[in-house]
Each structure stands twice: as C-alpha cells, then as structure tokens.
Amino acid sequence: MLNIQKIRSKKQSIIALGSHIPILQSILDFDYLAGKEGPSVIAIIASGRKNVRLFWGEKDVLIPVYPTLAHLPASVKNEITLFLNLTSGRRVLSSTVELLDSLPNLLGGALFAENVPEKHSIEIFNKIKPGSRIKSGMTSGQFIVGPASVGLMIPGHLKLGAIAGTDAEQLMDSHVFEPGSVAVFSSSGGMTGELIRLVTTVQKRISFSLSFGGDRFPILTPVEAFLAAEHDPQTKHIVYFGELGGYDEYELVDLIKQKKVTKPIITYIGGTISAMFEKPPQFGHAKAMASRGEETAQAKTKALKSVGVKAAQSFEEFIDFVKKIKIKDNIPLPDGNPHVKRALRLLEGGLKNDLPYEGSTERSEGRDVQKVLSKMQQRTHALFMNSISQDKDGSVEIVGEEMLSMATKRSFGHIVGSMLLGRQLKSKDTAEFIELIMKLLVDHGPYVSGAINTMIAARAGKDLVSSLASGLLTIGPRFGGAINQAAQHWLEGVAESIDPDEYVERSAKQNKRISGIGHRKYRVDTPDPRVNVILTFAKKLNKSPYTLFAKSIEAVTTAKKANLILNVDGAIAAVLLDVLSQKEKISPEELQELINIEFFNALFVLSRSVGFTAHYLDQRRKDEGLFRLSPKEVGFAE
Questions:
Q1: Does residue 332 carry a pLDDT above 60?
Q2: Which residues pair with 45 in a beta bridge?
Q3: pLDDT (tens digit, 9 = 90+) per residue, 342-363?
Q4: Which uninterrupted H or E stretch holds 469?
Q5: For residues 143 and 122, what is the distance between their CA atoms, to the nearest angstrom?
Q6: How is 440-480 classified by DSSP, letter by letter?
C-alpha cells in the first residue's frame, strides 16, 4: 500500500526505464532546487549509450545507462527504491514485472505510458496486491501509480514523473518545495498540475499529490490514495477531482461510512454535461464515460454529499471550497540551496522585489530569483565531460587532487592507477602493483614486432611521434593486447564457477585460444622469471580467486604441452583482477566494464611506450640509414 510517511522519511533512489529527457531533467531540477546533495535518478535502462547527460543546476552530470536490468551492479540494485517506467504501452507489463522481481528494496513506481492493455494492468495489479481487498483497505506490498500517470509528488522530497511540470519556473510557481497539509488527487495529469497551482495560489501547500492515470484500470485506485492520505499524519485535507464513469466514489462513500476515511474532502466530479446527450459520450480518459445512472457525475456528487463530503456542483464552487480551507500552513523554508529559499519567499509574496535578500545589501530578492531561473533556462551542455583533470582556481587538479601535491606526495603507480580508473586509488598495494607492472612491461628486447616497427620508422627518418605511433599500432591480440583478453577469461571462469578442465575443453571445441596461456621461449622447466614475481604479489591478498583460476587452467594446459604456461599477460590479468576486487572494492560488473574499455591493455600501451621511445632514440643516435632487406632475406611463396 502507498505509505507517504515511509517515502518521506528516507532518501529515495529512482531507476528510469527509458530515456525521456524532459521528464528526467525536471526530476533533477526538482532535486537541485530542493537542496539535495545529488540526483535521485541513479540509473537508466536504455540502449545505445553508457550515460545520459543532464544538468545538475548549471553543470553537466552523467546518469549511468545500462542495456538491461541484468547489467545493473548489485550495489545499484540494492540502492533503488522507486522506478519510473517511460517505455511504450506494449512493453509496460514485461518491464515492470522484471523490475518487481529484480530489485529487492523497491517500494513502488509510476507508469507513464498510455493505452496499456487492460489485461496487462490487471496482471500488474495482481502481482503487487495478491488477494487484496480495496474496499476494506486491506492492501499490501508495493504501490504503482498509472498507467497514463504523470506520477507522484511529495513537496521538497520527491518528484516521480512529469507531475507539476517539466520546467524549473513551473516548479517554482507551483511551490513544490514547501511541505503542506493538503493532498491532491486526479486521474488527469494536466488537472493534477492545475489543482496543485490552485491550492498553492490560495496560500495552502501540498502534503502530497498524485495522478492515478487516465486508463480504465489504474493500478493504484482513488480509494487507495484516500487511505494513504488518511494514514499520513501531515495531511489534514484532501482535494479530489473525479470523473464520471466507474464506481470509485461509491467505494469511498463506504469507507467514510465505516470511518476508515475521516479527513475533510473537497471534490468536484467532472462530466455533468454528459446528461445533455442522448447517448453517453466518451470523454478524454478511458473510463470517463457513464454507461449507467450511478456512473454519472450528478449521481456521484449526490452520494458524496450524503456522507459529508464537500462535493461541488460547479468548478467555481469547487475553487471557492478550496479557498475556504481553514488551515494556513506554517511552511518551513527548506535547508540547503539559499537561492531556493529566496525564490520561495519571493514567490510566496512575502517579500517585495526591492528588498535585499538575507546576507546582502547589494542585490534584491527579485533580481536574484530571476538570475537563478534565467541561468537554468539558458544553460548549455559542455562539449566534453571529463572526470580526470580540471583547472580549478588557476591550479590543475588530477582526479580531485592538486597536481603539484600529487606529484610530490604520490607514487607514480598511484598517479597512473588513479588516472586510468578515473578516481583516487584506495590502497597503496594497488599503486605498488601497478608500478611493478609498469616496470616489468617497459621493454622486452628489440626483437618484438612493436620495437621493430619503431626502429624501422626511425631509420626511415620519421619523427618521434610517427615512429612511436608505428610501434603502438602493432599492439593487438597477438602482441601486447592479450592482457585484456586474459582478464576476460579469468573473469568469466570465476563468475561461472566452471571446472578448469571443462573450460579448456570448451575453448578447444570452439577453436578459441586462451589468451594469457603459452609462450614461444619459456616452458614449464624454464619458466619466465617475471611471472613468479607477479604471482608472488597475490600472496598479499586475503583471497585471490582469479589468480587461482588462472593457475588451475595452467595446470590443465601444461599437462598437454610444456610451453602452454601462464605467461606475463595472463599473470598480470589474474593478479590485477584480484587486486582491484580486494583492494579497490570493484565489483565483477565494474571489472567487466574495465575490460570492455581496455583498461588492462592501457597499462601495456603506457609502459611499452617508454621502451619504444628508447628504441627510437637509440636508432637516431646510431643513424644507420634506411633499413632494407635483401632478396635472400625475403622468401617468395608460389
């Protein structure tokens, strides 16, 4: 059941299904103007990109995008409490059910799409309220507003959907940052926004507001909304815009008679004009049609009046009833953003434009509010988003630390690891291991393809950058790029908990070589000394599942052939996975992302660039001229 106080009492985190930029931006604008520390939208499920760029105030912010729910990191799944489903009507059922089954701490959500098949809405209803009896108020589990809903609003705390508008000025004008005592409901999204404006214009404030949605079978019914308001200690009055069609209001009448709803209600049932037609007309919403006498606006109004509800005969009378609500909310201004405090006080009408805002004798309240809104309306996205470095107050910062301080206090391994990860390393062990990798990979003789290409370009008279690029372009699956591929093997093997023999056999059947295994020079009896140094580092860790898996694969492959040993690439990949997992607390999902962006290969590229540069300089010093092979040195295959 919808529990407003429970939602209000804790921080809520939202996942969006689909990327509707204006709606998502309006939620972030609400969060920012409400003085929150960060966006409530923490994840988006969509295709085609890894992030959606939105604004946090005047600055750009990236909201992570995942292709499916299965790609959500476990930590994100546990943090999410609410969802906003922005997918099409035909996808609402499957996507919503998947959310309900996948997210352990989900309280509820909102469905934005119209024309959701009625059968689908009923299936979702039965999913979250098995065996519930709405008439008695015995509901349990999660809540869902919609379909065809603009969402749920709790002033100063939550904006779940397009409710109250998608423009910052609309939000300001609607006073949705100030908690009040009047609950506002309607099926219509547009009418919900108008009711919010109506209530706040007459100096009342909203405790919470929601739109049931315009489809025939809203999952959260009007009766459940009334019960939520009844149980919410902050709500003192209820303002409801109803419609002809259906029997919701008669269920409300029963609850009032049973004293399960006791708070004062002001309502207007739209559609009285339908009585003038010979046949009942269909209004904008699916259920807004009176096919029987009890479903007419007049009959509902009469029934509500009979139990003490202030049911207006006209919209003008409805407005008059709202004006006469006797409570004048004593509204505390929210903590946080001082611009919002000033804006709210101005829009409240409590200050004149020519009065200075608190703490200033120069600028006026009105000018400050207009400046805040003007900046938000004129903001433009930056050309690039960068999380590595920035110029701050004339000084360069690298991953949040002043450059000179970092250069003098941090090891080179720490600087490299932090920059490649895009955040400060947590452990000195990680920095130490990265520095060890950089040293071990710096060169492996002049015989490897990358060094040869660099030297040939140097002897052809090419410049440093061109020669270095020639060598770097040789790096790939057969030279230097195997660290990344080996990391993929070890990550998959541990994730699947697969037997090493089975993994090797499966790879053989698929005709796939296991990267990180095998060497032309070294064998079991003449091992690569670098590998032993790398594997020794794993002894510092409490757990090393990736290293153990890699070594178990080696045990299988060397039994087949002596040179199918764990090589430098495979050893680095295995130990680095364990170090990142144990010391940096990086999840398997995040490790997979590092593999996808070639983080592991980056270490080889960076380190070997030093070696290639050294070979370039060596050839330039010797200046032996253009390198050329003789016909005898190049065979011809017929």
A1: no
A2: 17, 66
A3: 445 544 443 333 333 233 333 3
A4: helix 464-472
A5: 14
A6: HTS---TTSHHHHHHHHHHHTT--HHHHHHHHHTT-BTTBB
Judged against a pLDDT cut of 70, whether residue 162 lies above it is answered with yes
Active site residues: 285
Task: State the Cα–Cα distance between residues 528 and 526, nearest whole angstrom.
Answer: 7
- Pick the closest to residue 82 from 21, 155, 22, 4 (CA basis): 4
| Residues near 546 by beta carbon (within 8 Å), at least 6 away in sequence | 490, 491, 494, 573, 574, 575, 577, 578, 581
Give residue 234's identity as a one-letter amino acid code. Q
- Note the pLDDT of residue 589: 87
Close Cβ partners of 615 (under 8 Å, ≥ 6 residues apart): 443, 446, 451, 454, 455, 458, 471
How long is the chain? 638
DSSP 42: E
Query: What phi and psi values does residue 385 have, to the nearest 5 degrees?
Result: -105, 135
CB–CB of 81/54 below 8 Å?
A: no
Contacts of 609 (CB under 8 A, 6+ apart): 468, 472
Q: Which domains does the chain have, with CATH numbers?
A: 4-323 (3.40.50.261), 338-378 (no CATH), 449-622 (1.10.230.10)
pLDDT tens figures, 185-197: 999 899 999 999 9
β partners of residue 59 = 56
Residues in a beta bridge with 560: none
| Three-state secondary structure readout of 577-603 | HHHHHHHCCCCHHHHHHHHHCCHHHHH
Assign 214 a pLDDT band (cuts: 50, 70, 90): confident
pLDDT bin (cut points 50, 70, 90) of residue 130 is: low
And the tokens for 34? 């409400």
- Non-local (6+) Cβ contacts of 6 within 8 A are 107
Cα 161 → chain centroid: 15
> Alpha-carbon distance 344 to 178, whole Å?
8
Handedness of CA 157, 162, 163, 169 (dihedral sign): positive
- Looking from the CA of 411 toward its CB, the CA atoms found within 13 Å total 15
